[in-house]
Automatic annotation (TrEMBL), chain A:
Residue ranges crossing the lipid bilayer per the database entry: none
InterPro entries hit by this protein: Alpha-ketoacid_DH_E1_comp, DH_E1, PdhA/BkdA, THDP-binding
Disordered, as annotated region: 1-27
Gene3D superfamilies: 3.40.50.970
Keywords, in A-Z order: Oxidoreductase, Pyruvate, Thiamine pyrophosphate
GO MF term (any one): magnesium ion binding
Residue ranges with Low complexity bias: 1-10
Protein name: Pyruvate dehydrogenase (Acetyl-transferring) E1 component subunit alpha
NCBIfam families associated with the record: PDH_E1_alph_x
PANTHER family listed in its UniProt record: 2-OXOISOVALERATE DEHYDROGENASE SUBUNIT ALPHA, MITOCHONDRIAL (PTHR43380)
Required cofactor(s): thiamine diphosphate
Feature: compositional bias, Basic residues: 11-21
BP GO terms, sorted: branched-chain amino acid catabolic process
TrEMBL record, chain B:
Signal peptide extent: none
InterPro entries with a match to the protein in the record: THDP-binding, Transketo_C/PFOR_II, Transketolase-like_Pyr-bd, Transketolase_C
Superkingdom of origin organism: Bacteria
Alphabetically ordered keywords of this record: Oxidoreductase, Thiamine pyrophosphate
Cofactor(s) it depends on: thiamine diphosphate
Pfam family of the protein (one): Transketolase_C
MF term (GO), any: oxidoreductase activity
Gene3D superfamilies: 3.40.50.920, 3.40.50.970
Protein name in UniProt: Alpha-ketoacid dehydrogenase subunit beta
Residues covered by the Transketolase-like pyrimidine-binding domain: 6-181
Oxidoreductase recorded as keyword: yes
Length: 391, 329
């Protein structure tokens, strides 16, 4: 699948083996691909919505390629941090399907508001994956143009971006850009910990009251640094939506197909003027919160192993093999592409120059400030005073 | 139309109306700003004339007001947010300091947040707690924000339009106790020829000492100067108008002439605007000073109960007492 919007799935369907009602199996989880790689043709959600995907073989392979590339680049970033080249890194390991599935469900005109872990969504939006590494290397504070890529800067303050997404979505509606097939929708990413934040709850209130074209996409990766989900909620997170007056649904966040189907449906509802919804992508943070964290202090190995068996890439690979959609040559080629892109990323990170200290005075205000002009000039004179000296 | 006599509150209303007329991207949002016209009626009649998509009654949550306004700004709107009272801005503090102030910087100039945050501030109206505070130093201390305060109807009318037209995020402090004071307002004055937003101005020329104030204390200082004149002392009063960035050129020029300066504000003195102004005057005018720069300010207590606020707030006598002390040095 090419970078950018894959568009509507092409014709030429592969028959999937079986379908089921959501009321069988796990009643709270939309799943189209089991951990062992079995396809479920469709799932009917609690409100009667039928979730299905009809991808071509090429599209299935494209999703697999996305998952592998995103994981490889993430692993490279972790390695760069370990070698002292990044100050910190927030790994997405384990959450690739939640991010690729939702990221590919976005249409070109849709706007996304990420946290600081949405490297997979960023990749799907066509942004150079080196961009967030500048932030974590400490040479800039973001870098990409949010309006060009329809992907806002990373937000570090937990949950703050959900309000930005809500305001942006209000603007979409005020611009009259909803109600049609080519309407615009907005997606707000956040985690399970963020659901305790006032800002997130205020965003729920606002989006509900103003019927904003917005999808709240919560990646429930089970931990807010060390705190387990039970410290944030006593009901499943997706059920919170009911109290705010819009639909909530839980999807298997390690299933790229189900995540795509559920997100695409929610986005299309939003763009057609049917208001907000909450998706809880049920997943697991396989790695540490960040490279500064030590998860062995607060969770046991058997839990991690249980989730290892639900790996999003392994199940996609098993499906592609079983259905003979891809062969060993394809998997080898994807691995080789991932390796090349990781090497390229590494080389470019190492070549990133430190910013000129003078640039810290840039862009504080669109209209500038005489105070800053004065401080910049003083700082410049101070630096010049060392010129020609030994120090 | 030309010049009319308006209260400061009505002048703000007229300025907001003009901004809504001039730019379809301007939206007003806040609690009770619609049908009610705001608890101080500053937005009176605007929703009726511009509709509820331009003048938006929001849910009752300040962080939500500012946070959604950030999103609207990214979308290309120019939100004018009303915080109902000074003491209610703190739930929005994170959004203001971490998001509004830093978005332009973090994006290396790719995003602008052309937002105005209107806050009725200061005491003197006999209000219950949390309704009389002066939070300006918190915001003036934050890089990425600009902070201004108007002191008379003409400035209120012009400055609110200038603030809305500016691409900088601006905290706009309205002296609530002066909302009902009247003055002449030239409603036809073109904005392009108006006195700059981020500039101080001599409000009363004088020769013997310089009083520095903004917002509600400008009136107090002008009254003090009138009283001092009866005693033969000719005080200059400067309306600072812009608190971030400060514009102190006119202040230095004045203090070099008078040799004495007193800074007056309602906010507590400790680490307040007066501390910064005094430090900068000392740096720039050291050899001209006949006495230390003195401050007349609120005390470093929580804002007290209304029945003692007259003692808490700087008034004419405390200002003149400080002036006397500069002459006793």
């Amino acid at each position: 699948m090419a970078k950018g919007d894959p568009g509507a799935p092409a014709r030429g369907r592969r028959a999937a083996p079986r379908s089921r009602k959501a009321t069988t199996g796990d009643p709270e989880l939309v799943q189209l691909l089991t951990p062992s790689g079995e396809r479920i043709e469709s799932v009917t959600g609690p409100d009667g919505t039928e979730y299905r995907v009809d991808f071509t073989d090429e599209e299935y392979r494209g999703l697999y390629r996305d998952l592998v590339l995103v994981r490889k680049l993430d692993a490279e970033a972790t390695a760069l941090q370990r070698q002292g080249e990044l100050g910190i890194w927030a790994s997405l390991l384990g959450q690739e399907a939640a991010q690729v599935g939702s990221g590919r469900a976005l249409r070109t005109q849709d706007m996304a508001f990420p946290t600081y872990r949405e490297h997979g969504v960023l990749y799907c939006r066509g942004i150079d994956p080196i961009m967030p590494l500048g932030l974590f290397r400490g040479v800039d504070q973001g870098g990409w143009d949010p309006n060009e890529f329809k992907f806002n800067m990373y937000t570090i303050v937990i949950g703050a971006q959900t309000l930005h997404a809500t305001g942006y979505a209000m603007g979409v509606a005020m611009d009259g850009k909803t109600g049609t097939d080519d309407g615009e929708a907005v997606i707000a990413y956040f985690g399970d910990g963020a659901t305790s934040q006032g800002d997130v709850n205020e965003a729920f209130v606002w989006a509900g009251v103003f019927n904003s074209p917005l999808v709240f996409f919560c990646q429930n990766n089970q931990y807010a640094i060390s705190e387990p989900l039970e410290r944030q909620t006593r009901i499943p997170l997706y059920r919170r939506a009911a109290g705010f007056g819009f639909p909530g649904i839980r999807v298997d966040g390690n299933d790229v197909l189900a995540t795509y189907a559920v997100t695409r449906h929610a986005l299309d509802n939003a763009r057609h003027g049917q208001g907000p919804s909450l998706i809880e992508a049920y997943t697991y943070r396989m790695g540490a919160h960040t490279t500064s964290d030590d998860p062995t202090r607060y969770r046991i190995a058997s839990e991690v192993e249980a989730w290892q068996a639900k790996d999003p890439i392994a199940r996609m690979k098993a499906f592609l093999e079983r259905e003979k959609i891809a062969d060993a040559g394809f998997f080898g080629e994807v691995d080789e592409q991932a390796r090349r892109e990781a090497v390229d990323l590494r080389e470019r990170v190492l070549a990133m120059p430190n910013p000129d200290p003078d640039t810290m005075f840039d862009h504080v205000y669109p209209n500038g400030s005489p105070l800053l002009d004065e401080q910049r000039a003083q700082f410049s004179r101070y630096l010049e005073s060392f010129e020609g000296s030994a120090h | 139309m030309a010049t009319e006599t308006l209260t400061l509150g009505k002048a703000l209303n007229a300025g907001l109306r003009k901004a809504l007329e001039n730019d379809p991207k301007v939206v007003i949002m806040g609690e009770d700003v619609g049908k009610l016209g705001g608890v101080f009626r500053i937005t009176d009649g605007l929703q009726k004339d511009f509709g509820d998509q331009r003048v938006i009654d929001t849910p009752l949550a300040e962080s939500g007001i500012i946070g959604t306004a950030v999103g609207l700004a990214i979308r290309g709107y120019r939100p004018v947010c009303e915080i109902q009272f000074d003491g209610f801005v703190y739930p929005a503090y994170d959004q203001i300091v971490s998001q509004v102030a830093k978005m332009h910087y973090r994006s290396r100039g790719k995003l602008n947040i052309p937002m105005v945050i209107r806050i009725p501030f200061g005491g003197g109206i006999g209000a219950v707690e949390h309704h009389s505070e002066s939070p300006e130093a918190y915001f003036a201390h934050t890089a990425g924000l600009k902070v201004v305060s108007c002191a008379n109807p003409q400035d209120a009318y012009v400055m609110i339009q200038q603030a809305i037209a500016s691409d900088d995020p601006i905290v706009f402090l309205e002296p609530k106790r002066r909302y009902w004071e009247k003055g002449p307002v030239d409603l036809d004055a073109p904005l392009s020829e108006a006195y700059p937003l981020h500039a101080s101005r001599v409000a009363r020329a004088g020769t013997d000492a310089t009083l520095l104030a903004y917002g509600p204390m400008v009136r107090t200082c002008l009254d003090a100067a009138t009283a001092a004149a009866e005693d033969g002392r000719n005080l200059e009063v400067i309306d600072l108008r812009t608190l971030s960035p400060l514009d102190l050129g006119v202040v230095y020029e004045s203090v070099r002439r008078t040799g004495r300066a007193v800074v007056v504000h309602e906010a507590p003195s400790n680490l307040g605007m007066g501390a910064e102004v005094a430090a900068r005057i000392t740096e720039e005018c050291f050899y001209s000073l006949e006495s230390p720069v003195l401050r007349v300010a609120g005390f470093d207590t929580p804002y007290p109960a209304a029945r003692v606020e007259e003692e808490y707030l700087p008034d004419l006598d405390r200002v003149l007492d400080a002036v006397d002390r500069t002459f006793g040095w």
